[in-house]
Design goal:
THUMP fold; alpha+beta; 8 helices; single chain; THUMPD1-like
Length: 278
């Protein structure tokens, strides 16, 4: 009898839940987006998380300033002891549970791979592009251990029904922001530690989610649909100028800028030398 009850309990726990559109909701995940995939120097994961927190909080405060008027009014009614107790309590909370902290590290249990989840109103694509374009302009990185950043507007379990549901949502949000524009696009798929779904099958299923009117262009795409699959997690976003921005590779962008500056310096020196001989 006990075994029967246990079996019924297992069946209840395993029973799938479904969204209103009929797609299944799968189990709880350690990695949940929107957020940013970060690849870094091996053995420097902890330091990378620290510098990413500092970087993202700085850019986030610039793009989406905190509005703390209500909180300030509430704090004004508290005694000094109560205010201190409130601050200590907030510090003890996990980052993911603290409403004042917009970024939280999600465990990947993999060397060199970090995922930083982002809370509203942060847009991971806008956040990363802001930083990458700053490097492109100045050649200065504000990180020591970061190799590459991949923003994703949402994440899901890496199975075809979930991936298609996520793609439809992300693509709908992007195209609604450009209602009168038709785009040439390319699906940029990167798969790591995942062997369940073949690449051609995944690309075909993502392409089926693109609304009519937009066309594939593998040579000169205007937008890139980034599909990042890591283990059992899939993340999706839509970006522009992906190749021009060196696929958001921080170190490559900095090197490229250094080479440009060196070339300009050599040309300036040669020009000055030629003027001196004239």
């Amino acid at each position: 009898m006990a075994d029967k009850r246990k079996s019924q309990g297992d069946d209840t726990r395993r029973k799938k839940k479904y969204r209103s559109d009929g797609t299944p909701i799968w189990g709880k995940r350690h990695v949940e987006g929107p957020g940013v995939w970060v690849s870094c120097v091996k053995g420097k994961e902890k330091q990378t998380v620290g510098e990413i927190y500092e970087l993202f909080e700085s850019i986030g405060s610039e793009l989406w300033p905190h509005v703390d008027s209500e909180s300030s009014e509430e704090d004004g009614d508290l005694s000094l002891e109560d205010q201190i107790a409130k601050e200590v309590s907030a510090m003890k909370q996990p980052r993911s549970k603290n409403p004042q902290l917009r970024f939280a590290n999600c465990q990947t249990n993999t060397p060199c791979v970090i995922f930083i989840s982002c809370k509203a109103p942060v847009d991971p694509v806008q956040l990363v592009v802001k930083y990458i374009k700053t490097i492109q302009t100045t050649g200065i990185t504000r990180t020591r251990y970061v190799h590459r950043l991949v923003p994703v507007s949402g994440t899901c379990v890496a199975n075809l029904p979930e991936i298609q549901a996520l793609c439809r949502k992300v693509l709908k949000d992007f195209f609604e922001g450009h209602p009168e524009t038709t785009f040439k696009y390319k699906i940029e798929l990167r798969v790591r530690n995942h062997t369940t779904i073949p690449r051609p099958t995944m690309i075909q299923n993502v392409a089926q989610c693109v609304p009519e009117g937009h066309t594939v262009d593998l040579e000169n795409p205007q937008i890139f649909i980034l599909v990042e699959v890591f283990k059992s997690i899939c993340g999706v976003s839509v970006v522009e100028d992906y190749y021009q921005l060196h696929k958001f590779n921080v170190t490559e962008l900095a090197k490229h800028k250094d080479l440009d500056q060196s070339a300009e310096s050599r040309l300036a020196d040669k020009s000055a030398e030629d003027d001196g001989h004239a």
